[in-house]
TrEMBL record:
Gene name in the database record: LOC108621239
Cofactor(s) required for function per UniProt: FAD
Pfam family, one: Amino_oxidase
Chief location category: cytoplasm
Protein name: Spermine oxidase
Composition skew (Acidic residues), residue ranges: 292-303
InterPro entries named in the record: Amino_oxidase, FAD/NAD-bd_sf, Flavin_monoamine_oxidase
Chain ranges of the Amine oxidase domain: 62-296, 338-572
Length: 599
């Protein structure tokens, strides 16, 4: 039985102390769980209400932790991290469910092995075995009336779909153009599906194969981070670089990667529950001190990138080619005039920093960038923030008292009959009346995590609608779905249902970045472009990091990690750089892995 909805909302894990993290599981059973964990809040020292620091890192997600570690490795310890939540990790977070079970609410896999720094860190710290024996994976695909699709047909359609998707990837590098009036990945794949199915004579077989293609497209929206694949730009799909080696699951959960990344950072250097309200990034000296520049009085047009963002000096650029800098001095932190940037926090804290590394997620920037930065960001950067997509992807965890699926089955694909949905207009599909009756049809499968734990995925507007529902409503609907598709009226109700709510989270605003129709890889490069307080500055006032700033690995944790390292490197680069060395956490795993043949 599912527990009844409590009369008072369950406390968000964000607001709890470390000692209360176990209560998150109880909160999950009693109400919706915020996509958050917990951490002890540390406090820095301030004189006169103002804290002076060389480098202020905004955000303690993967990018922020990476930047902090890179600064420490190069002799710079004069930094602070301000984090809005009560914990570190950002979109990497897990909660316990009891019985030694825990679930990852955010990042799930290490995407690729070769050249992936997250995999290297995991191996170096014993978090994953190099010899990975995958579990048998048997997928069962069923229609709404319980008809099970022969595996041979499922495999045939999957292989065709993968081929169609790879062809979409090729446009990014190739010179030829797509067919006329086809601008999105969804349009191109559906064009190929239509051609592929035109040779199928049997109407029932044709319809069945179409349903499988539809299911795979829904799955792709969760991978890409969008509502519909028609939103994703065809020519830019290949800008994302896929690393070889498949998806790796850490036995102790993805959140276990946070331990080695946080271990070297002094606790007093991380200030949690400290949301940023305003970043004054362009200030000038006056008789009364440093004041924010009034762009209009300076006759500066914020659209003029030559005045708001200068070219990175040649010497700094050459230093950027390396991954690390060895300094001849004991500290490499004396890098700019004191207090060039002022950062005001919602709790009243004020920081004066020589430089800021901003890792605020794209979803938050979309909502706050106009009010957050003073002066406003250059127009080209604002346009890129608006151009890029930050989609919603949520998870539904169903916890059971006992197993009920066949031990051999690892995933149940749901082949929804989408005929009625196809006839609905785009405007109607956004209404609450429509979503209330159809949101669950975006769930493309239920995968078995353990014998008593199932995971469903949902994306886009349907995910946003699900975030407004109680856990009991979601649990009841999922039970109804499983009973119908499995044709088993005795499928039990889950004892607990945990749903993520990434779109509703104030400090996230969605899941991850993708490139919609009309946007380009250049928009991501624009977000990564540092800001200089004036054209004469040799080092930037603000450097940006996060998965949304990596033009090849956007949407991934390793993209966030590398962007944080790059941001720190901007600030560490000397005017006349010393010998550049490659950063290593022990052995050169990338070179070593080159000798291993991977399937």
């Amino acid at each position: 039985m599912v527990d009844k909805e409590p009369k008072t909302p369950a406390p968000s894990p964000t607001e709890e102390g470390l000692a209360d993290i176990a209560a998150a599981a109880a909160a999950a059973a009693a109400g919706r769980v915020a996509d958050d964990g917990t951490a002890a809040s540390s406090t820095g020292t301030a004189q006169g209400g103002i804290t002076n620091v060389k480098v202020l890192i905004i955000g303690a997600g993967m990018a922020g932790l990476s930047a902090a570690n890179h600064l420490l490795q190069n002799g710079c310890d004069d930094f602070l991290i301000v984090e809005a939540r009560g914990r570190v990790g950002g979109r990497i977070v897990s909660i316990p469910l009891g019985n030694n079970q825990k679930v990852e609410l955010g990042a799930n896999w290490i995407h690729g092995v070769l050249g992936n720094p997250i995999f290297e860190i995991a191996v170096h710290h014993g978090l994953v075995s190099v010899v990975n024996v995958p579990k048998p994976h048997k997928v069962v695909a069923t229609t709404e009336d319980g008809h099970q699709v022969p595996f041979s047909i499922l495999q045939e359609i999957y292989e065709a779909y993968v081929c169609f998707l790879r062809r979409c990837d090729e446009y990014f590098l190739c010179q030829y153009s797509p067919p006329p009036d086809i601008n999105s990945v969804g349009e191109h794949i559906n064009y190929e599906i239509e051609i592929y199915l035109s040779s199928v004579q049997d109407p029932k077989e044709k319809r069945l194969k179409q349903l499988i293609f539809n299911c795979l497209l829904k799955r792709e929206t969760c991978i890409t981070g969008c509502h519909n694949m028609n939103e994703v730009d065809l020519l830019e799909l290949g800008s994302y670089t896929e690393l070889q080696g498949g998806n790796i699951v850490l036995p102790a959960g993805y959140s276990s990667i946070l331990r080695p990344l946080s271990a070297q950072i002094p606790k007093e250097s991380i200030l949690t529950k400290c949301p940023v309200k305003k970043i004054h990034w362009k200030r000038k000296k006056t008789f009364t001190g440093l004041e924010t520049v009034d762009e209009n009085s300076e006759n500066e047009d914020s659209d003029d990138s030559q005045k708001t963002v200068t070219e990175v000096p040649t010497t700094a650029s050459s230093a950027m080619r390396g991954a690390s800098v060895e300094s001849n001095t004991s500290s490499n932190c004396d890098i700019a005039p004191e207090g060039a940037v002022r950062v005001d926090c919602e709790n009243g804290r004020v920081f004066h920093a020589s430089h800021v590394i901003c890792t605020i997620p794209l979803g938050v920037l979309k909502q706050t960038h106009r009010s957050l930065f003073d002066p406003e960001l250059p127009h080209y950067k604002q346009e890129s923030i608006e151009n890029l997509m930050f989609g919603t992807v949520d998870k539904i965890f169903l916890v059971y008292e006992r197993p009920f699926l066949s031990a051999a089955v690892s995933e149940v694909m749901l082949l929804w009959d989408d005929d009625k949905q196809d006839a609905v207009s785009e405007e109607e599909s956004t209404t609450e009346a429509y979503l209330s009756k159809n949101w669950y049809k975006k769930i493309y499968s239920f995968a078995k995590i353990t014998d008593t734990l199932l995971l469903g995925w949902v994306s886009g507007r349907e995910a946003e609608y699900m975030e407004t529902l109680s856990h009991e409503v979601v649990a009841d609907k999922c039970t109804e779905i499983l009973r119908n598709f499995l044709q088993d009226p005795y499928v039990p109700k889950p004892k607990m249902c945990v749903c993520t709510s990434w779109k509703s989270q104030t400090y996230t605003g969605g899941a991850y970045t993708s490139i919609p129709v009309g946007a380009t890889q250049e928009d991501i490069e624009n977000l990564a472009q540092p800001l200089y307080a004036n054209p004469q500055a040799t080092k930037p006032a603000i450097v940006f990091a996060g998965e949304h700033t990596h033009s090849s690995f956007y949407s991934t944790v390793h993209g966030a990690y590398l962007s944080g390292r790059t941001a720190a490197q901007y600030l560490l680069a000397n005017d006349e750089p010393d010998e550049i060395i490659m950063e290593s956490d022990g052995s050169d795993l990338s070179a070593w892995m080159q000798g291993i043949a991977l399937d």
